[in-house]
Amino acid sequence: MFNKKEYNKQYYQDNKEKQKGYSKQYRMDNKKKVNEYHKQYYQDNKENKKEYQEDNKEKKLDRSLQSRYGITLEERDRMILEQDNKCTRCHLPFEGIGTEKYAPVVDHDHSYPKGDPNSVRAILHNYCNLKVGTHNDSIEELKLSIDYLKKTSKLALTND
Ligand SMILES: [Zn+2]
User: If 128 and its partner were Cys, which of 17, 30, 67, 89 is the partner (CB 3.0–4.6 Å)?
Assistant: First the structure.
């Protein structure tokens, strides 16, 4: 005999399981979609962020070069090309960026006012720029050091 009550109960039971299955499937699909979306978003954002940061770094460097030496980043890069990518002091190639030892830096004469492009002498290695700077751009000062080293170095004496 057909029992409506039993049938409804069964229908409800079956449906409940089905519903559960649906939502579980839905949640799983959705989770996958959401994860993929997040992954893609992160990836896109990472690229954009990197590009943005690179762009920002260049802009910052350009502004800094203009305010300190009165030259643009483009002009500095042109100088590096004209120097055949080599340091004018030691004639070895440039390597690295920023504060790295052999990265290119603008060497300038401190007696000029800040931002005067005439103050720019050449592009040197960071290292070489420091060496030139230790004698305050003074050939006389440098001569004193050379004379001192000549007098005190045994190797220099035998070679002289
Ligand atoms: Zn050098």
Answer: 89
Exposure class string for 73-105: b at 16+ Cβ within 10 A, else e: bebbeebeeebeeebebeeeebeeeeeeebebb
CB neighbour list of residue 118: distance below 8 Å, 6 or more residues apart = 112
φ/ψ of 99, rounded to 5, equals -95, 10
Provide the sign of the torsion angle of the four alpha carbons 70, 62, 110, 85, taken in this order: negative
Q: Among 142, 137, 144, 135, which Cα is nearest to 152's?
A: 144
From first to last of the 160 residues of the chain, give the pLDDT tens digit.
Answer: 567 777 777 777 777 767 776 777 888 888 888 888 888 888 888 888 888 998 998 999 999 999 999 999 999 999 999 999 999 999 999 999 989 999 999 999 999 999 999 999 999 999 999 999 998 888 999 999 999 999 998 765 555 5
Distance from the alpha carbon of residue 69 to the mean position of ligand 1, in angstroms: 20
pLDDT digits (tens, 9 = 90+) for 122-142: 999 999 999 999 988 889 999
User: How many A from CA of 134 to the centre of ligand 1?
Assistant: 14
